[in-house]
User: Fold this.
Amino acid sequence: MLELESIRVAYGQATALWDVSLSIAKGELLCIVGPNSAGKSTLINAVAGLHRISAGRMRFEGQDISRLAPHRFCAQGIALVPEGRRLFTEMTVRENLELGSYLRAARLERARSLEHVCALFPALKEKLEQPAGSLSGGQQQMVAIGRALMARPKLLLLDEPSLGLAPSIVLDLFTAIRRIHAEGIAVLLVEQNVGMALDVAERAAVLEEGRIVALGRPDDLMARPELRRAYLGLDAGDEAATSNASARGVPAAHGDSAGAAPSTTAARH
Amino acid sequence: MNFPSATLLAQSVLAGLFTGALYGLLGLGLSLSWGMLRQINLAHFALAFLGAYLTYELSSHRGIDPLLTLAVIVPLFFVLGVALHWVLTRFRVSPFNSLLVTFGITVIIEALLQWTWTADYRKLESSYAEHKLQIGPLFLPVPELITLVLGVGISLAVWFALRSTDLGKAMRAAAEDAPIAAAFGVNQNALALMLSGLNAALAGVAGVCIALAYTLSPSQIYAWIGVVFAAVMLGGLGRPLGPLIAGCVIGVTEAVTMTVTAPSWAPLVSFSLLMFVLLVRPGRVA
Amino acid sequence: MKRAFLIVLAAGAGLAVVPWLGLPAFYESILYLVLHWIALATSWNLLSGYSGYFSFGHGAFFGIGMYTTATLATRFDIPFLWTLPAAAVVAALVGALLGAVAFRVQAVRAELFSLLTLAATFVVATIILNTPIDGGPGVYMSAVAVPQIGPTAAGTFYLLALCAAVLTVLAALAVYHSRFGTGLFAIHDDEDVAEVMGVPTYRYKLGAFALSSGLAGVVGGVHALFISYVTTGDTFTIAMPLTVVLMAVLGGTRHWAGPIVGATAITLLLYAFTGGDSAIIGKGLTGLVLIAVILFMPQGLLGQALKWWSARRDAPAAPAASAAPAHAEAPAASAHAAAPVAAASARPAANAGEVLLRAEGVRKSFKGVHALRGVSLEVRRGEILGLLGPNGSGKSTFINVASGHYAVTAGLIEFEGRRISGVPAHRIAQGGIARTYQIPRPFAHLTVLENVALPAMFGAAALDRQTAEAEAWQWLAFTGLTERAHALPADLNLHQRKFLEFARALASRPQVLMLDEVLSGLTPSEIDEAVALIRRIRDQGATIVFVEHVMRAVMALCDRIVVFNRGEVLAEGVPHDVMQRPEVVSAYLGQAMEERAPVAPASAHAVVPNAGKELAHA
Assistant:
């Protein structure tokens, strides 16, 4: 349904994504994990149309959307739940949800969609007339997801939904995400919280420094070293075996200062 | 200094309301431009006077009823507003520079007005000016009444539209977070052009009201700038009812001050209020 | 600068003979006006052009000057010339008062400041009109004796205006070349960063406002006698400040001579179209000119001309396009990398390990969001301390709070035993803390060299301009930016801009250097270069606090790390050790992950941690 072919995305002169190729099938739930500044948000923003791609191709349901204007992405069937929620804080919850269904096709089904969102997130029912900015982080996240669902998307993009939320709320959120997925909506999920992400994913990709370094089923990825290395900087095996350790930037150890001696053998990538 | 009678006081409160409504009408377009489009449109006042002079011209010399001139002015000014916004976005003019560019436009329009109609004072003699309503001891001149009705009516209409229509909500969303609004299909560029056109049209309407009640001269453009900015900032940027309410507060306070003390103290009111708001609650404004 | 000074004085002296040339009075009138507007526009530019705080209240101070002279001369019979200093002082005091109040409020910037000053004009006007100062009928100055300076009255006024103009221009010139001026230009580009680099922004803005107002007051005083009938209606208008803005913007606000060009051009333009219809055309033309300049030539006529001129002389040591006073040639600095810079600020290694920066119970909230919930940590001299943690965990906030960019909501931060929480940022900078920004924030209109010289001037080192520039050259060499010294930051790529951030932070000779995600966005090889640079910096004796996500850099560089999670410190210690602790793994990889794949035993790593740390975990 969604195909990314060797896309490159740059911010000014800084290239954030290099040569990323990915595809998502209809109704699939794909997760992207990786440390910060790896390019995860950039990837989602590119798919959402918020950011232009500088090279490569992007296709949705066969149509080339690489050069599409930002406000036309929603009509294609792609809806975004942005990083940090980005609700319209001055507007009420109801107005935020209604804005999700701004486009004509979604507008016609507005009442039904609203009911559906309230069924999915019952806590929102009493909060409909409150300004969105007054809700707690978890509730705001629900509104953000609801807003995207109101657009009746075929592909739902979630950018770090667990950011800044307490673990129990994160659990509830992911339950909701599972339910959404169960209804047949394809989901592209970018997450920092690897555990939750891999738990819910059908397939996952690991993004590191702007490139995909691993792609596959969650269980496979768990067993591979890329994840630990990307997040924790730790090698899974002993470092002597890493023959691909180039001699980049590893000068001799400097003198001791009081306190821990730096591990001179740590940098091996 | 005798304390004025109740009638006199009531009449001045009324006068203040009338003036306030005009401040509100003038301030509405300015507030929306600044609050939602991040453009400080100093030319708003010049446009209003352009509208006033056009009304004067069409009415005095072509015999058209002043209120009917709206049919010409509103669409014409809408186009002007769209053009202005287009230029400002095309050149990526920063909010501050928009202040300077629109000042330039103000000067050009002022020169244009002076060229066409000279610097002599012009007064529109209309049938409306001759009529007054009377309620008890109070007089309500018809031109001012029209201004009040238009000011309140339009402010309410805009307020309602922004609050309850899909288009209005889309505009508010785009004003707060344009990229995310775009992610849900809101075409911010098109909406902005439309809003800019609307604001200019509002200037035109204010111009008609000015023509009905006031004597015109090109230099008068500048007399309104200060007090209307005060109303806009006190009312809170981007809030449709703000300039109206703040305008009335300023207008009434000014009028009462003028009656109780001397007319020349009036400006102190609005500007001290403005300075106070700027210093104490600037966040509320910008 | 001396040369420009002498040129201005010479021009002044030259122009001073005009009254004796026997020209028709008409010429003296025009010249009076030109000089009048030069003085007004230049004095305005001193505050507004340099610092970016566009005042629409210049008319207020001009008017105050006028009325001071008018009142003193007519009411108190003080000889005209003595009223002029009084006019300056009164106007300056009012300006200082307004500034003292306005600049305290952080949010009053740009448009708000403009409106505030505009409002002040009307307030002043109303007060003057309604009190005995004017009272309504205006003040007649015809009884005041015109001093016998020139051969005629017109000549005298001309000479007075000339003096005012020369005085103002010399002031603008002096400020332009001074430390004060550099600070103002930095405030123009990025006030917050300037403050964090040690520029005392409040003081400088206040000083500029007072100076600008005082000079306008003098011009007003002279003008009062010239027009001999002073009314509020003609004085306190909005047209006057707008005209001054137009003149300065047309000429170029970033240069001391810009307003001269603009004032001359506009005055002559308006004069060329005098009388009746032409005046109207002239007016319309000025509007058109202003629009054209803003849209197409934002740096003004002079700025554009200087740009063209320096583009032609593209020798490597050519002065920068902004015509800033950089005369330093590249000293014989060796190529980058190897040359150790002698300007290390470290104490001897014997003190290594002592606590340099200490945070205790630091809290920071923004509108209900608790970014830091009681953080306590220590930074020891000579170490590289890494701050890690998931997004939103508070690492950057901590840096912002420690550098004074934000104030703490609660808690204490001490540096070398002295409290710095709650201290203005510029003093923290002067105390020896420097930081870089994750998204580089160079001063856009200053060259690379000037960007690096500024913190050397205002930071802990507090050097004078010459030494600061020499210092800057050394740091440019250290970071490999020597060839780009005269470029503007916009011409650098991201890698270079990040290194510029390094150079700037280093130039202030800090004890503690805080790096905020300096590696994000860099390619792998650029990251390696940066890592090597950071090592060299530490070898110089600096202590480094390092917020980063690129794990291999963290592992390679950090002596200790502190892991943040949701506003609190989660763990602290040696990198390899900390990154294996279950709570840390869990924070990063999530609960489920931790349960599925238990951490590999530390014995698999051939690391030699300090004695006292356990080897086996979970």
About this structure: The mean pLDDT of chain A is 80. Chain A touches chain C through 56 residues (CB under 8 Å). Residues 87-146 of chain A form one domain.
